[in-house]
Design brief:
By secondary structure, the protein is an alpha+beta fold. It contains 5 helices and 8 strands; from the N terminus they run H-H-H-E-E-E-E-E-E-H-E-E-H. The protein has a single domain, classed as Jelly Rolls (Sandwich), CATH 2.60.120.
């Protein structure tokens, strides 16, 4: 192999940092458009919202929010399955891609009404209260 090719690692394994995939730290407008609640928002609004939402990979069993705790983030589910459980209720609901949670605590300014944990590996995106108020609160307003 030529010395210049060896230095640039053209034919060797891709071990240099610049060749590694870059994880996305924010959501994309395309992903948000798959969430029914958000699908009606204009493209420009979705793009601005996406930049302010933080993407998170969640391991099975991890708890994202706990019932009774203060709510400070709104979440959308991109991949995986999440369990929703409430103290005093025997059953539990399942959230799937396209679902969302956390809006009750933010819209009504009350503690979390349920615990949400990952059943499978999952990917979610979330935003803080200020972003929720700016972009999403109008979607939950009473007519």
């Amino acid at each position: 192999m030529a010395a210049w090719a060896e230095r640039l690692n053209f034919w060797g394994p891709r071990t240099h940092r610049h060749n590694a995939p870059v994880p996305r730290s924010s959501a994309t407008a395309h992903e948000l458009n798959r969430v029914g609640l958000l699908a009606g928002l204009p493209g420009e609004t979705l793009a601005r919202l996406a930049k302010r939402m933080e993407r998170q990979e969640v391991a099975p069993g991890a708890v994202l929010v706990s019932e009774g705790e203060p709510g400070d983030r709104f979440y959308v589910v991109f991949a995986g399955m999440l369990a929703v459980s409430q103290a005093g209720y025997g059953g539990r609901n399942v959230l799937r891609p396209g679902d969302y949670f956390g809006e009750v605590a933010l819209a009504m300014d009350v503690p979390r009404t349920a615990t949400v944990s990952a059943i499978t590996p999952a990917v979610v995106a979330s935003c803080d209260r200020a972003t929720f108020d700016e972009f999403l609160r109008p979607l939950f307003a009473d007519d």
